[in-house]
Design brief:
alpha+beta; 7 strands
Length: 238
């Protein structure tokens, strides 16, 4: 993977500034936080949110400012949206899923059956510095404003600038994938079925999709997003 150039950094900053300006126009304040307990507390009390992703929960995973952060959006002091991000440095990102360490890396977990990984053969081997986003939530009163698109894109920009990632990935359940959000809102050019069967996070059978993007594709996106009208895809997303 090539090193980031000064133009890459300029594009990253321009993308961040564009989305911050858009949030300012909505009267929203964005903060970047590294105490992942705060994210877990928000999610535990969030309306219409039943799933606490253990990847970003410090009671389940080894988290520190060198491998994780989360974004909080506030409106008049009320938290109305958030998203979390991890850095995994690994020879095999999918292997982290098979071992369950992607979700539970503080201690071994008892699971009665292996994951049924069903990724297509043409999905490349993902390794190196891998950004992984999740824990996305938007308050019901603020849905329909494009925040579900803005937050993953901002997260990817910060992950590239701060963690210098080679890839960025995320996972969604079938009802989210069926709406096309990873492709239309989150900005992933690729989405594939990853797990079909028992899923330890929900403790039931699920069809789990993986959105993914390569480093060159990320940098290409940034160069395109800083052109006129580039906020339209996120702004029109649910």
């Amino acid at each position: 993977m090539r090193a980031l150039t000064s133009q890459d950094y300029d594009n990253i900053q321009a993308v961040i500034s564009l989305y911050l300006d858009d949030l300012d126009r909505m009267g929203l304040e964005l903060t970047v936080e590294t105490d992942m307990t705060g994210w877990a507390d928000v999610m535990r009390s969030a309306p219409k949110m039943s799933l606490l992703n253990p990847t970003f929960d410090p009671s389940e995973s080894h988290l520190h400012p060198g491998n994780s952060f989360w974004l909080r959006l506030r409106h008049e002091e009320q938290t109305i949206a958030c998203i979390a991000n991890r850095l995994f440095v690994t020879d095999d990102y999918i292997g982290l899923k098979r071992s369950f360490r992607l979700w539970y890396d503080l201690k071994p977990v008892l699971v009665r059956q292996p994951l049924n990984i069903v990724l297509p053969e043409d999905v490349p081997h993902i390794s190196g510095r891998v950004g992984h986003h999740g824990g996305l939530w938007v308050h019901p009163d603020w849905r329909g404003h494009g925040l579900a698109g803005t937050l993953p894109r901002l997260t990817r920009a910060l992950s590239m600038r701060h963690f210098d990632v080679d890839w960025h990935c995320g996972a969604v359940l079938k009802h989210i994938a069926d709406r096309g959000l990873p492709l239309k809102a989150y900005g992933y050019p690729h989405m594939d079925v990853c797990i079909d069967g028992y899923f330890p996070v929900t403790n039931q059978n699920e069809t789990v999709y993986m959105g993914w993007i390569t480093r060159p594709e990320i940098l290409k996106q940034f160069s395109e997003w800083v052109q006129p009208a580039t906020l339209e895809p996120a702004a029109t997303a649910a």
